[in-house]
């Protein structure tokens, strides 16, 4: 009988071990906002580098906090919570608000 090597923990678990949960959440949030910024640059609505990028930092932090709270409330695994953070960060406050309004209208 051969011994199998331990399974690879995956990217999110590796980041979590290296820099902790807060660092992993911030990386996911920054990746989400960077993806949004890239789509705006492709659509020629923003230059690649501008002072507007400074405003993406508090947005990323805020969406990381909101995504982490949502993941905890819904009892998601760490990996799913990090994905939720990235998606919410990509959507930003306006996109997240629009989704919540649609959800609330459907529930009413």
TrEMBL record:
Transmembrane helix in keyword set: yes
Keyword match Membrane: yes
Domain of life: Bacteria
InterPro entries: LydA_holin
Keywords: Membrane, Transmembrane, Transmembrane helix
TM ranges: 15-36
Name used for this protein in its record: Phage holin family protein
Origin species: Pseudogemmobacter faecipullorum
């Amino acid at each position: 009988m051969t011994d199998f090597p331990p399974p690879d923990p995956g990217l999110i678990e590796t980041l979590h071990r290296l820099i902790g949960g807060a660092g992993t959440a911030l990386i996911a949030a920054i990746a989400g906002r960077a993806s949004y910024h890239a789509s705006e640059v492709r659509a020629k609505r923003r230059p690649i580098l501008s002072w507007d990028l400074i405003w993406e930092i508090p947005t990323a932090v805020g969406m990381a906090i909101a995504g982490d709270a949502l993941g905890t409330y819904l009892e998601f695994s760490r990996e799913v919570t990090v994905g939720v953070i990235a998606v919410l960060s990509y959507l930003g406050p306006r996109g997240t608000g629009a989704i919540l309004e649609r959800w609330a209208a459907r529930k009413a």
